[in-house]
Design brief:
The protein is of the alpha+beta class. The chain is built from 19 helices and 21 strands. The termini are far apart. InterPro entries: Beta-lactam/transpept, Beta-lactam/transpept-like, PBP_dimer, PBP_dimer_sf, PCN-bd_Tpept.
């Protein structure tokens, strides 16, 4: 007996003395586990602080089928299905396997969770969590983007600013019993979560709504494939609205094709057509090759290398001033002016306006477009580039060109973020956009006069005119390349301009892709411009200047 007891005593000394730390560590490893404390994700708001994306408290309902008696499963499934508005069969399937210990059922509001737990069903519980909500549904949907089930940003600004919005998750240690139940009074928080920061955009919620409404209605009315609209502040380069049609409903993004998650206003690339003539005009005036009253003899067609290029409609030979060339959107007249400038200088001017480079506005999916080197231009391309065929841009790049002209020749890098909050929830304004002199103030003023004439009675943009305001703008109608037909088999209709013309405050662009009921920019894009600009001017309380537009000579001899 003494020998046996000495063996036991030795074993006890080994377990409790020599090896105690090893076994204690193994025991702790079995009962202690870390539990993530999710940080609250920051909000995305418009420029006035209205929440466009926010995080709300939620509860994850779960069931433990192993402790729910078989006789009670039908009753539990019936009650949960009624409370959650789900099919009873769906809930019953989650309760069917008694070997499972934890089966998530739904993410619900705290009120719904309280109602479900009020039944006091054994094996039904809830866990605190956060859920992303988008109050506006599809308002700025492709701009904002969305988060996945794990709470990480997947696209849009939710992805661009994911690290800032997400914050840092915390962690607490909990102890569980043999069956996985939590042991009371044993939790210890080892890292406190850091809440996510808020991001305030330059977007104005009301103007965004108006832009989406106008572009979506026109896309539907013309049977178009897609459309985009942009509103920009002339002086700051801040984007007040960026709308697409179709727009992404953020409450149902899982049911939407990934092709419609894209913010087309910054990622779709197209040939700009006649809206590009403003760059040719600026290059011609800046170089001193022409003046606004320089007269061109303009036929309705011109031979360029192996191609004959034509104006949009047949007409007799006209003697147009350069202002008249721009106002009437003559392709032939624009080519004649570009030939006075030269390929290299025209290419350099396009670069100065931002073509061939990403705008750097902070959008997700910004594209640079396509600006081939001037040495590689084909014989006909040396002519077509002058009126916007043979180069490719995005809607944002085009809007930026007109912001530059409206701002006296100074380009301000577009921006979408107004500021972010710091650790004390105080707003820290974003740095202003970079300012770059592109053309002289005189050139910008002369081009503005031409664009104002383009909206006048002799121009192509008469449908963009707004009563009481002086408006400057340009139509654009370009053949559209489509990979489906492996060639040009549709149109891009555009109108872009600014107001008031003599004291510019806002730029508005509307572009409609592949319309089937009309295709001229002056007919189907200009009305969108008018609606959006009228609303934005009223929303920003920008009054008419009350001045009279100068007389612009369109034809020689007038």
């Amino acid at each position: 007996m003494t020998f046996v007891l000495s063996i036991f005593a030795g074993r006890l000394v080994q377990l409790q003395g020599l090896d105690s730390k090893v076994y204690a560590a193994e025991a702790a490893e079995q009962r202690i586990r870390g539990e993530k404390i999710t940080a609250r994700r920051g909000s995305i708001t418009d420029v006035n602080g209205h929440e466009l994306a926010l995080t709300v408290e939620a509860r994850e309902l779960f069931v433990d089928p192993s402790v729910i008696p078989a006789a009670q499963r039908d009753r539990v499934a019936t009650a949960l299905a009624a409370d959650l508005g789900r099919p009873k069969e769906e809930i019953a399937a989650k309760l069917a396997d008694p070997k499972k210990r934890y089966v998530p059922v739904a993410s619900v509001t705290p009120a719904v969770a309280e109602k479900v737990l009020g039944h006091e069903f054994k094996g039904v519980g809830s866990k605190h969590e956060y859920r992303r909500d988008y109050p506006g549904g599809d308002l700025a949907g492709t701009l904002l983007g969305f988060v996945g089930d794990d709470g990480d940003g997947l696209t849009g600004l939710e992805l661009v600013h994911d690290k800032l919005l997400a914050g840092q998750d915390g962690e607490q240690v909990i102890e569980t019993g043999a069956k996985g139940q939590r042991i009371p009074m044993t939790h210890t928080t080892i890292r406190t979560p850091v809440e996510g920061r808020d991001v305030r955009l330059t977007i104005d919620r009301d103007i965004q709504w108006a832009a989406q409404k106008a572009i979506s209605e026109q896309v539907a009315a013309t049977g178009a494939r897609t459309g985009s609209a942009i509103v920009m502040d002339v002086q700051t380069g801040q984007v007040l609205a960026v709308a697409n049609a179709p727009e992404l409903d953020l409450k149902n993004w899982e049911k939407t094709s990934s092709a419609d998650w894209v913010n087309r206003a910054v990622s779709d690339v197209f040939e700009p057509g006649s809206t590009n003539k403003v760059i040719t005009a600026a290059a011609a005036l800046e170089s001193g090759a022409v003046r606004p009253d320089t007269v061109f003899t303009v036929d309705d067609e011109i031979r360029c290398a192996d191609r004959t290029l034509r104006d949009s409609h047949p007409h007799p030979v006209e003697r147009l001033t350069f202002s008249g060339v721009v106002a009437t959107s003559s392709n032939v007249g624009t080519i004649l002016a570009a030939q006075k400038v030269g390929d290299q200088k025209l290419h350099e001017m396009m670069q100065r306006f931002g073509f061939g480079a990403r705008p750097g506005a902070g959008f997700y999916g910004e594209e640079a477009g396509l600006l081939p080197s001037w040495e590689k231009w084909s014989g006909s391309q040396r002519c077509t580039v002058a009126y916007g065929q043979g180069v490719s841009v995005t809607a944002l790049q085009t809007a930026s060109v007109y912001q530059t002209i409206a701002n006296g020749g100074v380009r301000v890098t577009p921006s979408i973020v107004a500021g972010t909050t710091d650790e004390n929830d105080a707003l820290v304004p974003a740095a202003p956009g970079k300012r770059t002199r592109v053309v002289s103030e005189r050139t910008a003023r002369q081009v503005t006069g031409m664009l104002e004439a383009a909206v006048g009675v002799d121009g192509t943009g008469t449908m963009a005119a707004i009563d009481g305001y002086r408006v400057a703008g340009k139509t654009g109608t370009a053949m559209r390349y489509d990979a489906a037909c492996q060639g040009y088999c549709g149109y891009t209709a555009t109108f872009v301009g600014f107001a008031p013309a003599d004291k510019p405050r806002l730029v508005v662009l509307a572009v409609i892709q592949d319309p089937h009921k009309g295709y001229y920019g002056g007919e189907i894009a200009a009305p969108v411009f008018k609606k959006v600009m009228t609303f934005a001017l009223k929303s920003k309380k920008i009054p008419p200047t009350g001045t009279t537009p100068p007389t612009v000579r369109i034809r020689a001899g007038e």
